[in-house]
Amino acid sequence: MTAPAAQQETPAARKREQRGWYWYDWANSAFPTTVLTVFLGPYLTELASTAAAGRPYVDVLGFDVRPSAYYSFVVGVAAVIQIIVMPVAGALADHTGRKRELMALFAYLGAGATGCFWFVGGGGYLLGGALFVLGNVGFAAAFVIYNSFLPEIAGPAERDRVSAMGWGFGYLGGGLLLAVHLGLFLKAESLGLSGGTAARIALASAGVWWGGFTIIPLLRLRNRRALTPGSETSAQAVGRSFRQLGRTIRELRRYPLTLAFLVAYLIYNDGVQTVISFSATYADQELKLPEEVRIGAILMVQFVAFGGALLLGRLARVYGAKKVVMVALVGWAAVVTVAYFLPQGSALPFFGLGFAIAIVMGGTQALSRSLYSHVIPAGKEAEYYSLYEISDKGSTFLGSFTLGLALQFTGSYRLGILFLMVFFVLGLVLLALVDLPKAIRAAGNEVPRRI
Q1: Does residue 120 sit in helix, strand or coil?
Q2: Which of 9, 140, 187, 333 could form an SS bridge with 393, CB 3.0 to 4.6 Å?
């Protein structure tokens, strides 16, 4: 494979790639929206409860686990495996130069596993958990490589806008598919479908959506670095990737402020991801809200979050991304506090809380992604974004296990959700202490006018 022609690096070509890049957010948002946020938690919990047959525990590889805690622990296990796989994916992408091909490999692994949820029924909670682990690992590894395209397709001054547009476009895609699923649930009885069958259709169709729309970015994104000729085997490439990962981690000592940003992000994003992952389960198990209310609220979140991402992106251009993220973290702390006091069976407060989450959710994630792009050295984007993804999706194991342990020992979702306040407050303090302009200069990059 040869290096891309210089004439391809034109403003028109860059815009075309950016538009293609947005489509992967549209494609893969079906997984966090339909699978992770809405359907899988309640569905797996119900399968585990059915398998328990009135007993307090189900068997999970020799361990006694409460059905209510099963999903939390599955998410935690998936996060631990992600921590191992994501850096390998990033290092392979940088070393082989095949970013696009590797992104396709992991995206279709995740989409295929998600499509197989159609076959999960009865007491198949273990099969459902295994498919979720595969889907979640594929989702995270592909996202590492997807994120690493951002510094290549957008200059320093436009990354906040491009990143926010990607997140916003993703919310539209996830929201559109979720609207279809809401219609399916409302019409399930008239269509002769049970709730379980409707859930399986929704889960499997998310995989089809993800895989289908992934074709668009794969056609538009380009590998930029020429491959080095040679006969290196895949095993040798993986081994070299592990060695490079070790060098990348050691190299972080040269960029202590980049490391400080990663630690702050790991902590506050752990709270964000846990709230997103377990909101539907919290509404189902603790607030006792019906399925149509939960789906309707989360559907509203998707469309409001599109506007929220663009709004916070615009505010970042005026006030700086760091300040906007810090204000958003204050909002997240308020959200979990209010969630603790929500009454059971009342839909209106849950919709109000969802609206508040939507405003801060997209901006927190999009602006954090663009901030990180400024503090990593050029030419090592995929490697460093693999570490970022560990702080993103991999770090969820902290919140997941925290919530799982709270359920295992107390059975109270409210205590678990309230404890997430610690993640937002501590993350806010650590982010405030990071000198971002100094971090950007240390990485050899240009400091934007507002940061």
Answers
A1: coil
A2: 140
Report the distance separating Cα 124 and Cα 134, nearest Å: 16
For the ranges 154-158, 345-349, 431-435, which has the lowest average pLDDT?
154-158
Q: Which DSSP helix (H) or strand (E) runs through 234?
A: helix 234-251
Tokens at 75, concatenated: 């998410």
Q: Residue 124, Cβ neighbours under 10 Å: how many? A: 17
For the chain, how many residues are written? 451
Using alpha carbons, list the distances in angstroms from residue 63 to 66, 377, 419: 10, 44, 25
Q: What is the pLDDT of residues 8-62, one digit of tens each?
A: 578 888 889 999 999 999 999 999 888 987 888 888 888 888 887 778 788 787 7
The β-bridge relationship of strands 63-65 and 58-60 is antiparallel
Q: Integer distance in angstroms from the first to the last C-alpha of the chain? A: 37
The verdict on pTM exceeding 0.85 is: no
Per-residue pLDDT tens for 392-433? 655 566 767 777 777 777 767 787 777 788 889 999 999 999
Instruction: Pull the structure tokens for residue 3.
Output: 């290096």
| C-beta atoms surrounding 207 within 10 Å | 25
Q: How far apart are CA 89 and CA 81, in angstroms?
A: 12
